[in-house]
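Go through this pair.

…
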Amino acid sequence: MARDFYAILGVPKSASADEIKKAFRKAAQKYHPDVSKAPDAAVKFKELNDAYQVLSDTEQRTRYDRFGEAGVGGGAGGPGGAGGGFGGGFPGGFQGGFGSVEDLFEGFFGGAARGSRRSGPPPGDDLRYDLTIEFGESIRGTTRELDLAMRVACTGCGGSGAAKGSNTKECDGCGGRGEVRTVRQTMLGQMAVSAPCAKCSGEGRVIEKPCTSCRGEGRIKGTKRLRVEVPPGVDDGTQIRLSGQGEPGRHGGATGNLYVVITVKEHPQLVRDGIDLLTEIPLSISQAALGARVMIPTAEGEEEYEIKAGTQPGSELRIKGRGAPNVRRPNQRGDLRIHVVVEVPRKLTREQRHALESFADANGEERG
């Protein structure tokens, strides 16, 4: 059944653009699902949005007046199709479902209208440390001692920022809430907008007498020594998170995390492919045809390996369980995959040529 968008907004067909906008503001404030307790508020709010999208656009309104809802892509879901949310319904681009009233206000005020927040000292910063290790260490794991230049908790005040014998008290600028509220005039009427308290920087408490060692900050410049266990199987770019090993927050705030980012040095003969290791070995024609024992590179060093007679050029040999460990399951290892390269000599000695000619004659091959 076709809907009457003018009736939904409660305006006559002769209504001006300004009248349509005012009607939408008033109705939207009444029926927003986060404000209205009515069971059909969500349905009415969506109808209001559908109607406003059409009637606020001159071209769409003209088509609607001539052809009805069918002229503006009507049907299930209304403008924007079924389940299309509220894309563009509010001036300023309110999109993506109902959201909350605070999210709606945030769009109007450019991010300043967030609701109540938790007061208290802010947490410390997360830190990053770039650690370079050898290829073999990435396979078997390793332990490193790190010396970090960072801010540490002040020993003079224990990180609180308050001098000995002093304390903190509730901020009288915000009553301990960490935020102050002001009333602003918006398109939906008067709205309360919250912002961090400038007097306590949003913490809700102020220091009576600041510590002289850290000037009330609760932390000072220093160094920290830390042991890092690098597990077997780490790859280039792996991040190791050490919870609570970052910088402490101001005034005793929670400590951040330390992220150790691994760089693995290249191996001259091995390359990783997931948990598999790849390498290649050069074989002479006789080694490939007759078989041989050759030295191959592995993660643990060079080892002797038997090449079977008749090994073909370009073939891949696989040694199970000799790849890299799975960093999450160290007992699970990948494979060592060996690509065979058969080298053809560019120059032959007289003996080599005679031997190859005899081989060709035995196969009945014509020689050039």
Notes: The radius of gyration is 37 Å.
